[in-house]
Amino acid sequence: MNRRQFVFASAGVAFLDATHAATTGKYSLVIKGGRVIDPSRKLDAVRDVAIAEGRIAAIAANISAGGAETMDARGKLVVPGLIDIHTHFTRTSDGASLCLADGVTGLIDAGSQGADHISEAVAVAKAAPQQARVLINIGRAGIIPEGDTMDLKRADVAAAREAIMRNRDMIAGVKARLSRDVAGPNDFEVLQRAQQVASSFQLPVMIHMGQTISPLPKLLALLKPGDVVTHMFAPPPNSIIDESGHILPEVTAARRRGVIFDLGNGRTGHLRWDIAEKVLAAGFLPDTFSTDWTPEGRTTQIIDFPNVMSKFLMLGMPLDHVIACATSNSSRVFPVFHDRGTLKQGAAADVAILELREGNFSFVDNFGNQRSGRQRLFPSATVLAGKRVASRS
Predict the structure, then answer these.
(1) At 311, which CATH number?
(2) Cα–Cα distance measured from residue 292 to residue 366, given in angstroms and rounded to the nearest whole number
(3) Which of 217, 218, 243, 392 is the 20 to 30 A CA-CA neighbour of 46?
(4) Looking at the DSSP assignment, which residues form a beta bridge with residue 361?
């Protein structure tokens, strides 16, 4: 039996265990009375969610818990565990746990380290309680104040390939930060080198766009299906829209051939309200949401993933689409998450319980501009592999 057959066989056994529990009523946990929103199943209804053997066993009205532990989710949203494909959680040993308490049951560190120190990021990712992987920065020193690849010698293809070979199970892709203060005039060559590395292992490249020296269409031409453009709401120069507010034809063509466009909220230069409004008005909705999480972001702008999602409720996106951008859509980007982002029977029981509050909430973009919204999502509880996780204090 090869590895692929083993994975599918194991998933089949887990599904049968969950199915047996559904027919016998032997559950370990039942989440009661929440509004279940699962975009992967187009489900939006008040239901109970029963869990057994670390898997979703049943979703129905009024499930009898028997002797199982129960969680009261009345008045709250019950959604698949959130998947954040752009964070920098490896900068701190407790980053993954902090994100988990916010409902994030899968996460990617997007290029904090390059070949020189990738083992440090990998060690933090391996210790994470939830599924976690890293992208290797094409700049071998990782993120540095003087610019990751301002010195082109740091974009070392051989070093990156060797680092991936040593950590193939944990490196999910290659990150190329292309802003003028990171790569300078080297941006196009840096991206070419990132693709050389990625193509050796059939991995995606994630590019950090916005404020590049090269025009965005020139950079997009190097992207292949499955690559990710993050910071998609960055303002000019080299935004994804022209001066008239129309999406660049090269951007539309990139999406058509399978390039993924991601929010990447961050804190500096990546999100401006007027650009986001114009892009959404043009009908170009994000494929995925991500936070660009850092420890510093917990106190300003980002706060947590549900807060970032709430910004797009304020901008007029429907709730189910907001949930999809953080769950089912994100699950399709990296193979490690392909069986996540769903509450279907037999799936891993990773669940986020969120509270959608009504009121007057202030949101800020990366340029200090404040907007008010009538709704905000707050993390309430997390279930990982069928077990309740300690809530955020």
Answers:
(1) 3.20.20.140
(2) 12
(3) 392
(4) 373
Task: Measure CA of the first residue to CA of the last residue in the chain; give whole Å.
Answer: 46
Q: Locate tokens 């120069």: which residue?
A: 237
Compute CA distances 19 → 132, 160, 354, 386, whole Å.
Answer: 28, 44, 27, 15
Retrieve residue 340's tokens: 């996540």
Task: Convert the pLDDT of each residue in 376-387 to its tens digit.
Answer: 999 999 999 999
For every residue of 310-339, DSSP letters joined together read HHHHHTT--HHHHHHHHTHHHHTTSGGGTT
Q: Fill in the amino acid letter for 185.
A: P
The DSSP H or E segment spanning 173 is: strand 171-177
pLDDT score for 233: 98
List residues bridging with 355 in a β-sheet: 378
The confidence score (pLDDT) of residue 93 equals 95
Do 174 and 200 meet the contact criterion of CB atoms below 8 Å apart? no
Looking at the fold, whether 221 and 317 belong to one and the same domain comes out as yes
| pTM exceeds cut of 0.90 | yes
Residues 152 and 27 in one domain: no
- pLDDT value at residue 94: 96
Comparing CA positions, the residue from 28, 80, 32, 22 lying closest to residue 52 is 28
Token pair in block for residue 264? 């990447």
Residue 25, pLDDT score: 67
- C-alpha to C-alpha distance for 357 and 76, rounded to whole angstroms: 9
Q: How far apart are CA 86 and CA 271, in angstroms?
A: 14
41 with 184, same domain: the answer is no
366 falls within a domain = no
Low-confidence ranges of the chain (pLDDT < 70): 1-25, 393
C-beta of residue 125 within 8 angstroms of C-beta of residue 132:
yes
Instruction: Please name which of 216, 219, 243, 231 lies closest in space to residue 268, comparing C-alpha atoms.
Output: 231
3-class DSSP assignment, residue 262: strand
